[in-house]
Design goal:
Helix content: 40-55%
Shape: rod-shaped
Bound molecules: zinc ion
Distance between the termini: 79 Å
Number of domains: 2
Length: 111
């Protein structure tokens, strides 16, 4: 039976892993821990992060993204970019809504 953490070598390329808490191989970049292992916690899943970004925390979810050991550094920056773009879009939509309501009120008062 396969161990969830096979000694201290990368399961993909067999390179020795020096960092005991590394989630990704420094040589080939593949995850050292299978996604369904007990070490993969529910709050570290990408789906949970996306829910936090879009419905709960917005840009405040960025620390969660940066601290997530299951994401590669590239995936982290993509998610940070998504969070920032979403924040800008929400702010812009809010500004437009206020402008729209203001102009509706102004024209409504003049008839
Ligand atoms: Zn490797």
């Amino acid at each position: 039976m396969e161990s969830p953490r096979p000694s201290h070598t990368c399961p993909a390329c067999q390179t020795p892993v020096l960092d005991a808490v590394a989630a990704f191989c420094s040589h080939c970049g593949r995850p050292l821990v299978p996604a369904d292992s007990p070490r993969a916690k529910w709050h570290q899943s990408v789906g949970f992060l996306l829910i936090m970004i879009f419905f709960v925390l917005g840009p405040l979810a960025i620390p969660l993204i940066l601290k997530n050991p299951r994401l590669s550094s590239r995936a982290r920056w993509i998610l940070v970019g998504v969070a920032l773009l979403y924040t800008v879009a929400v702010i812009d939509a809010g500004r437009r809504m206020i402008a729209s309501v203001t102009s509706t009120l102004n024209t409504g008062l003049s008839f």
